[in-house]
Amino acid sequence: MKNTINISLGGIVFHIEEDAHQKLSAYLDAISKSMQGSEGQAEIMSDIEARIAELLQPKVTDFKQVVSITDIEEVISIMGNPEEFATGSAEPKKEQTYSNTNERGRYQYGQRRIFRDPDDKVLGGICSGLAYHFGIDPIWFRLGFGLSIFLGGFGFLLYILLLIIIPKANTAAEKLEMRGEPVDVNNIRKIIEEDMQDFKKKAQDFGNEMKDWRNRSRTRQFERNVGDFFSSFFRGLGSLIGGILKGITAFVGIILVIVLSCLLLTLAIALFTGINVLDIDSKTGHSVHYSIHTLFAALNITWAERTMLIAGIFLFLGIPLLSIIIRFGRGITGRKRPFQWYTVSASILWTASWIFIIIGIAKVSKYFKATAHTSNEIKFTLPPSANTLYVKLPVQANANEENITVGINSYSFDATDDSVFFGAPTICIGASADSNFHFILNRSGRGTNAAEAQASANNISYSFAQHDTVLQLSPDYQITEGTPWRVQHLEGILQVPLNKTLDMPDGIDHLICSTIHHKHHHLGGHKWLMTLQGLQADSSSFHKN
Q1: How far are the Cα atoms of 142, 295, 511 from residue 317, in angstroms, in the given order?
Q2: Which residue in 45, 287, 310, 486 is a FRET match for 203, CA 20 to 30 A apart?
Q3: In angstroms, rounded to a whole number, what is the distance separating the alpha carbons of residues 442 and 343?
Q4: What pTM value is reported for the model?
Q5: pLDDT tens-digit profile of 284-294?
Q6: Per-residue DSSP letters for 53-102?
Q7: Residue 283: in which H helix or E strand, if any?
Q8: Which of 52, 81, 96 is the last residue of a domain?
Q9: Is the dihedral of CA 442, 444, 449, 451 positive or negative?
């Protein structure tokens, strides 16, 4: 049984037997005494201890956790005895070479490790380190990397990758391993002394450069003073302009924060209260007060569907608004770090808004699933002596200050504050199959089922009158009060006998169906004759106009 001691060697803790510790201490003391007065003695000793620790590490395993005297003797045999170099000075540094015979003859490639060479580098020391490993001149690696940049850029990416994965040779032991030389005390000492000489030379060269610079600086003092003046002037001017721009930016930011905050507040009031905060100009220029609850009332949807849509719309519009407000607020206050908790919460809530809106729309769409159509027809003739039917269209009775026009897809209708809907009918004109005039009214509506859709279509009310040679049309139809909006629409088809004439009033063009309107851009204010080819303009009415 032997006593053990814990020691720290090269920053690594070892459990070492007492006699092994005594031998190691004597060895290090002998090396230290042999180097008294040498430059970089402390650095040499530090590198030697790091190398000894590196050699001892493989000898410590799970089954053998104590360093023995045999291990120390093996390390000393690798590092070399102090007596071998105590009386003599280190050999002068040989000229660095990359030939195959100088180093490869003594050491195999397996004894070398790849490092970046910090002493012979252009950028990162990659080429020099590879040249040491393969025993060739680094110029060939540098030439290869340089050419590859112009041949697709692969070499540049490879160089960056090697720069990341290949370590730099910082210590004397690593430099020796890079060169393939034995990592012993003598070589470590030579490397550090060479580094000290290089450092001295660089310091001396720097001192000489500083002396030359001071001599040159006297002749340039005036130029520098002038340059400093203009530099200070423009720097101050730049600071002034920068301050003004910052002030303007801050002012604009404050205004935007106020405006966006008011918009966010308005959105919340409009969605979560029954207050009509939306003013829409009607046809006569008057304002009608509306909120989204008016639309919900017109649709006649359930409370759950209404709540889901309101929550989805508020989160969908409110989260981006609030994010912009916070972003401008951070810029004004100078806070650079974002609110991490807000970013996560806002992302979750905004995603939830999509879910609410999609589910809400899916539930509301059931009210428009079924479609129904109804039709009724009247026929009439003109007096025997008459050949022209005069179509009259009075001024729109419901276009008062209480109405606004709402357009959804291709459907357009007027709405009042009392949720009464007025729609503009579509008027089509075609040829009659007999000698009579025919006026056909086609109504359409939607609902959850065929019965509800039929009821929606039947609740369309439209008034017209025919007397003698006059057909009096109404400019709009009305949906019975209390009936929910279900895309109700009315289409009127006027069939005209051959060789009969229509006198169309001004202002009717917006009611004419698209097929007729595309052929004749302006029917209103003119007479039209029904022929086998369809409506033909009466030239006499155009000449009069």
Answers
A1: 58, 18, 37
A2: 45
A3: 54
A4: 0.46
A5: 444 445 567 77
A6: HHHHGGG--SS--SB-HHHHHHHHHHH--GGGTSSSPPPPPPPP---TTT
A7: none
A8: 96
A9: negative
